[in-house]
Amino acid sequence: MKRRAVVMGLTAAAAVPTVGFASGARAAQATQAGQAGQAGSGASSAASGSSLVFDPDAYTEPAITIKDTDGVSHEVVYRFYKGASYVAKPVDATYQSLNVSVPVKIDGKVVDATDAPILLANAIGGYMPSSVANNTGISGSGMGGGTSRQALALAAGYVVVEPGARGRTLVDSAGTYYGTAPAAIVDLKAAVRYVKFNKGRIPGNVRRIVSSGVSAGGALSSLLGASGDSPLYAPYLKAIGAADASDAIFAVGAWCPITDLEHSDMAYEWCWGGNPLASGAQVDQTISKELKASYGDYLASLGLRANGFGRLTARNLDEYLVKTHLEPSATRYLAALSDADRATYLAANTFITWSGGKATFSWADFLTHVGARKKNAPSFDGFDLATGENNLFGTGTTKARHFTLYSLRHENGSSARLDADIPAKLDLMNPMYHLVEDVNGNRSKHWWIRLGTKDTDTSLSVAGNLSARLTSLGDDVDTAYYWDAGHGADEDPGDFIKWMAEVSG
User: Fold this and answer.
1) Cα angle vertex 140, ends 135, 142, to 5°?
2) What is the pLDDT of residue 142?
3) Contact present, 457 and 245 (Cβ < 8 Å)
4) 338: CB partners within 8 A, 6+ apart
5) Within 13 Å of residue 109, how many CA atoms lie on the same side as its CB?
6) Of 495, 490, 475, whose CA–CA distance to 256 is shortest?
7) Of 268, 382, 361, 352, which is closest to residue 319 (Cα–Cα)?
8) Which has the minimum average pLDDT: 17-21, 115-119, 132-136, 388-392?
9) pLDDT per residue as tens digits for the range 248-296
10) What's the predicted TM-score (pTM) here?
11) Are strands 73-85 and 97-106 parallel, antiparallel or unpaired?
């Protein structure tokens, strides 16, 4: 690829402020609302309206300083397009809008991003609403104060699209929640459709869109990749006037994805059930053991297989995680230390055997090493309906609902039934549905999956299951766990940028 000269392993640094920008999404909202009233009922008619035509001349040209992993600063001049809504009939254009950043000069050299990969970088966390309406340039600072993934991609010569999306807490004056499931994934799909509909107007190669996200954003990035062009979303996309284009993407970057929600309580107890809370107290072990026991049936239904392990079950999943992900993670970490630092670490962590340049240990000892779990039981479908995920599956004026039979029947009796719309919404929100139950041939074929070994926001098996299934489907999967890292870790951002170049050809 022609623009790889700047892809040198880019990572953390603070960027300088950018300058003057175009009008925001609120001004666009009034325009969109007027046009939406004249739009047809289908996506095709919506796409034909001028509201979805990107203006390639409406940009400012700020500059930003970005530091790479070698500590070298790069001066990047880029075109910043402060976008209007990416749908013809927005529910709330403050969230349903996107910004586009296109590099034009890097370290004084002119670059042509016409055929560059496109990074679709969402900033969603906790399934909360995410808006780019007030952004005055590309997001230069990432999690932990380092350089954002968006800025690193920009310095590599890539086009960066930052979409907003509705989220679970949005409520109107009548008390109606309008950002609950599946609003966020519908919005991200609509953003992809908008970019593809504007091929040639938005610079970049629309056949090489790579999504990225962290936590819930990582889950949605995975879902976006797994569900490309699924007809299940058609009525939702039609309702908001999404462009008449494909929403399939080329590749996925997912960091600590909080996904597979309807099975997450089981997975969490299978993984962390014996670990204490930060207070030192144990969660209710009856609940924990009941949920853990149920996980075996779910694993069996997935039919996952892995080289050297055969069919993955509740009996060998721990060994699969240890041998496939955890010991290699510890090995990479220890091998990178000096001899003295490695000796000090091993002396403090005697559960690890270091021999022949390789770390080995048991699952039980690893769990003890991790220590406290973050969440109580059940972790996601709370009995008291107080979790973010309960809110995610709210509807109308109902803020929160149960989405698993276990929690629902624990509270309402053994004959209680989930609300009729819940099963379909679970399928809309779970990438595993599109990879196991209804295997999607239009899914992404390139996957970058990362999480920390001490991330107790969810089970370590969630990403492991996703990785195993994608690998068995024949996809290109690059999965790594960061040793001793917690939730939201990203220890190899430069490698992700280079990976984008490699898989994009």
Assistant:
1) 105
2) 66
3) no
4) none
5) 12
6) 490
7) 361
8) 17-21
9) 999 999 999 999 999 999 999 999 999 999 999 999 999 999 999 999 9
10) 0.90
11) antiparallel
